[in-house]
Amino acid sequence: MRFFSVFIFLILFRSVLSQEYLLSNVLYLPSHIKALVVSKSHQKLLVIKIQNGKPVVIDQMIAVTGLKFGDKIKKGDMRTPSGVYFPVSFKSKKILPSYYGEGAFPLNYPNALDRYFLRRDGDGIWIHGSPKKEILFFSSKGCVILKDKDLKRLSDYILLKKTPVVIQERFFYIPYKEYLNLRKKITEFIDRWKKAVLNIYNGDVSHMYDLYSPKFNSKYGTRYDLINHYKKLFYSYGGNQPFVKLINKMILYDVRKNNKKFFVVYFQTGFLSGDEIKTLKKVLYISANDMKVVSEENF
Fold this sequence. Notes:
Number of helices: 6
Helix content: 10-25%
Mean pLDDT: 94
Strand content: 25-35%
Low-confidence stretches: 6-17
């Protein structure tokens, strides 16, 4: 009996070892975009690209985060926020105190998920350099700090307002099959969202209500307010054929404590508005627990 138990354990152990585990935070990227993934517990930043449908680490460096552990809640709490953000500008060392080293990339914290759904405040979360040869771990006021030589290297990967920065408590790896299932789940949701928008042209908004949480909140207000905004935006006349195109799609997976998980989907959309072709850069924040949009913003 004991031999049999050991035999079964060895089979299971071998099965686990043979599985391929992938970093789950990056599900889809265009070929020209790299993602940055920061682990607060590991004090490390990974540069990720998608290669043959899988996330691959192409660079890594030390990344120092907040003095206090846990997720950021309010201004001055010395914590680094968890979430998905984008560098919105670059500040040169010429206009900054020497503390910031070679420069800084301000991030769009708080984003719409922080501001309208999670109700977090604060500002001034940057990725910046440091003139010090060695940086003490867990010593920032909430920013992500790199050595100057690493910030220069990182700059080559960053496209402003396009490069996603995923900040997590830890790197989160899952089996390849689970990774594929996650990607399929959110891709199917995006297809439903696109079809629901097309239905607005026909005066049918019921599908949009199905995709948006009753707790949804954004710059435009509740889901009712947002869908009314969509009705004004997505319409056609004069026999023009409605269309909605999505390009440069990025899908990130944001894993929090207490089993809170969010898909963050960025895309550029082209659509017919009246008799004009318009474009928007949009970010959807989707609860992975019930697959409902909880907030969104134009970027």
